[in-house]
């Protein structure tokens, strides 16, 4: 059965990321009642999504994540601040890293590439961008945005930064 797939940073014991996911799930259920939803996230995800009837997907199970992308009608990247490079080395070798790199900018780029390869549309939902300190990070953020069919951002500062990166 087709579904929506949400890929974000929930389930890693960050109350803000978890609260954003709850808001997303509540909005999606109100807008698309009965639509199956899968959510990719961390080890605490099951308890977060069960009240909404959503199915958890582990980023650590790459085969399951790939199946979820291939079977999705829409891959949603969000919410919260996922496009940033402060606090870690931002270079393209991280994009090819194995095991999965929990630096969200690069994880979202890999998911974007997989969705594009599978012919699945992506959407950025309530996303935050910045800081993007390196040119490599700015190019990766632009890549993610260029492949999205729709983009909603959490604030004007994110929109301004992405415009500086060349995102229309």
Structure notes:
- With 168 residues, the protein is an alpha/beta fold.
- Helix content is 40%, strand content 24%.
- The protein has a six-stranded parallel β-sheet.
- The model has no long low-confidence stretch (mean pLDDT 92).
List the helices and strands and how they pair.
Blueprint: E1 3-7, H1 15-31, E2 37-41, H2 45-49, E3 55-58, H3 62-71, E4 72-83, H4 104-117, E5 122-129, H5 135-146, E6 148-153, H6 156-164
Parallel strand pairs: 1-2, 1-4, 2-3, 4-5, 5-6
**Contiguous uncertain segments of 5+ residues:** none
Give the termini separation: 34 Å
Please tally the β strands and state the result.
6
Task: Report the order of strands and helices.
Answer: EHEHEHEHEHEH
Shape: globular
Largest sheet: 6 strands, parallel
Strand content: 15-25%
Q: What Rg do the Cα atoms give? A: 15 Å
Helix content: 25-40%
**Strand sequence of the main sheet, in spatial order?**
3-2-1-4-5-6
Mean pLDDT: 92
**Tally of helical runs:** 6
Class from secondary-structure proportions: alpha/beta
Quick overview of this protein structure:
It is built from six helices and six strands, in the order βαβαβαβαβαβα. By secondary structure, the chain is α/β, with parallel strands linked by helices. The model has no long low-confidence stretch (mean pLDDT 92).
Task: Give the key terms.
168 residues; alpha/beta; 6-stranded parallel β-sheet; 24% strand
């Amino acid at each position: 059965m087709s579904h929506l797939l949400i890929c974000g940073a929930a389930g890693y014991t960050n109350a803000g990321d978890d609260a954003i996911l709850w808001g997303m799930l509540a909005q999606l259920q109100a807008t698309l009642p009965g639509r199956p939803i899968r959510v990719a996230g961390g080890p605490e995800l099951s308890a977060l999504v069960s009240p909404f009837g959503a199915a958890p997907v582990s980023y650590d199970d790459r085969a399951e994540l790939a199946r979820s992308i291939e079977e999705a009608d829409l891959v949603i990247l969000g919410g919260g601040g996922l496009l940033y490079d402060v606090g870690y080395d931002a270079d393209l070798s991280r994009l090819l890293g194995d095991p999965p790199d929990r630096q969200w900018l690069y994880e979202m780029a890999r998911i974007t590439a997989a969705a594009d390869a599978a012919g699945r549309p992506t959407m950025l939902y309530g996303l935050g961008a910045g800081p993007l300190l390196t040119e490599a990070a700015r190019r990766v953020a632009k890549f993610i945005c260029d492949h999205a069919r729709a983009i909603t951002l959490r604030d004007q500062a994110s929109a301004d930064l992405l415009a500086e990166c060349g995102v229309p």
